[in-house]
Amino acid sequence: MCDLNVEKAKLTSEQIEFIQIFTRMEFALKECGYVRTGNQNAEPDWSAFAKKILKNSFYEEEKKLSSILCNEPPMCQIIRGEALDWKLAAKPDNIDDLINAVKRVRNNLLHGGKHGELDVDRNEALVSKSVELLKRAVVMDACIKSAFEGL
Questions:
Q1: Exposure of 57 by Cβ count < 10 A (0-12 exposed, 13-18 middle, 19+ buried)?
Q2: Per-residue pLDDT tens digits for 7-29
Q3: How many CA atoms lie within 13 A of 92 on its CB side?
Q4: Where exactly are the structural domains of the chain?
Q5: For an engineered disulfide with 114, which of 49, 108, 148, 149 has Cβ 3.0 to 4.6 Å away?
Q6: Which of 7-11, 114-118, 132-136 is most confident?
Q7: 132 within 8 A of 98, measured Cβ to Cβ
Q8: Cα end-to-end distance, the chain, whole Å
Q9: Residue 54 in contact with residue 137, Cβ under 8 Å?
């Protein structure tokens, strides 16, 4: 057994819930035929789902709610010179952009060091809003909801 201090890797209960919902949603997308074509990897096609089921009305509703995802979207991690850095992302303009913002929340949480002590309140608000948005998206399609719930 290897002793390893994982204190900095701890996630909040809401971050764990977000990861659970996000990964289950990706499973449901693939189960319901929303799979990207063009290669042999079975990758969920978020864009097809967003355009066919959610549509821009979902985006417009989110925008009216003054969502942090629309007004202060998650940043993108970049390499500046030889160092990791963050850059502001463009505000979402449509449903595809909004879903990409949620995907960036996931990427930042799992890969980009957006947990822990940096900008805690903003990051938690992004995670919280993403959880809310994904829950609303799941119930908008019977197949997705059934696959998500394991029925």
A1: exposed
A2: 777 889 999 999 999 999 999 99
A3: 28
A4: 13-145
A5: 108
A6: 132-136
A7: no
A8: 39
A9: yes
